[in-house]
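Q: Sequence in, structure out?
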Amino acid sequence: MLASKHVALSLLFFCLSLHLANCALPLHHFCFSHEDYTANSPYASNMKGLLNLLSTKVPPTGFGLCSTGESQNKISGLALCRGDVSSTNCKTCVVDAGKELRSRCAYRKGAIIWYDNCLLKYSNIDFFGEIDNKNKFYMCNVQDVDNPTSFNPKAKDLLSILSYKASDIPKVYAAGELELGSSLKLYGLAQCTRDLSGVDCMRCLYGVISELPNCCNGKRGGRVVGGSCNVRYELYPFVDGA
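A: Exactly. Output:
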């Protein structure tokens, strides 16, 4: 019994010592399609091909979309890695996301999954270029700030500035910080999937920012994560280069 505990602890510490991309767990997922496919069907084969394509196409730039198959067996998908993630860790995340999503949403024709480093989505319905307002979740720090009346507007201002920057550059990703005084800084991130236009990216980001009070009012950190865009703020640096 004692030996098994040592093995378990060793595995835990080994996992924690690796980069986040390797032992990371999904943040959330949705099996949003009500339609199923069967094993060994053309759709199943097309899905396998799609996931292989994304694992190759996405890592060099951090984003990719593609479709495989035709008619009722057509499947479309995209994957997006966080703007500061390396190509190696991006590939690891996209590959893991595909495996995990097929396991969690077995035989469902449409699904989406998020990790800290990436998101992956596929569907039998073409969704490219459209804002996904349905697949969304929230996360927040359990601790409160000392003065929410002063803090909340500053968090909103930082994310609004980053959203404007993100929507105006090809990478549609921006991260930055804001001095709060007393050696305290607020860090933020805004990002869209690159199939959106600049205008739709801005609309998507401003939409998720408007939802922060519902989940993260006065919290030391929070994020709203959707299928087309996401924002996050923290009182500690959480991206490379921030």
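Residues 1-22 have pLDDT under 50 and may be disordered.
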